[in-house]
Amino acid sequence: MSLLVELIADDPSHAALNTRHLQEAVDNAAARTELVLPKGRFYFASAGKACDYWDVRRQQTIAEHVILLHDGVTIIGHGRDTVLCPVGDTDEGLDMFYFNAFLDSGFRRREYLKDCHFRDFAIDSQKTSCRRYTTAGKGFMLNLCQDCTWENIQIYRTDGTGFGMDCTIHCRIANCYAEGCGKGAIDQSDGGSGFGIGYGVSDEESMEITSCEAVRNRKFGFFFENQARFNQAYGAVSHGDFLVRDCLASGNLYNFGGMLSEQVVYENCRGTSPREKDYFFGDRSRDNVIR
Predict the structure, then answer these.
(1) Residue 235 CA to its chain's centroid (Å)
(2) Number of structural domains in the chain
(3) Which residues contact residue 52 at a Cβ distance below 8 angstroms, ignoring those fewer than 6 apart?
(4) In CATH, what number is assigned to the domain containing residue 137?
(5) Whole-structure pTM over 0.85, yes or no?
(6) Structural domain for 137, as ranges
């Protein structure tokens, strides 16, 4: 089943209305329903931090966001003809799509976002800014997700990382692109990359990134990071397969690598013109494989 989402194009004054329409569509989508976004450039506003979610008032979320996701949502557009543009100056960054119940609950509730799929649209955050960089301000800010996919998504100019997904189980990113992400960060900041995958909650975690490209992002093009660097709630001692295959990176500070990164495989990847290094593994990284 497909449902066309009604959005108003080319007018920032309708950002709040577009946000409401898309959130209502996400909230009301039944399992296996495809939410189809029309062609056009659509502006979105912050929904704030605290919000109603399935009739429950949630604890304040850790970052401002546009859309709060739930299980079973599929969102598709018309390729580069569908562009989502979050707008606004926020304290710590504005995420376009958000799910982070683990942090929001103070690490008490291991709630996974399951079976969500995103295909054929772009996110352009050129009109966002943050007053203090905290790694928020992502295209996707998702923590704990399972059986989710991203295909043919382009993300541009986010304040934080473009594709920022942590603790993923059986997830896949294919034919996606990140450019100019991390504009709110400096070279010494955490995050601020094109594709950033955190891990450390479950030994089942896995991620495959194939045929993607990262260009001129602030920190890494592609990186993996054990979240135990920041909090002991991330206590997994191993993980499943982490694979980056047939990917391109150019003009990033580091094109590929990680922090406290362990046993990530980079297969047939190519980097050009890094601002510092093609591959960089820091903070006790070990056993990563380049082939």
Answers:
(1) 22
(2) 1
(3) 58
(4) 2.160.20.10
(5) yes
(6) 2-290
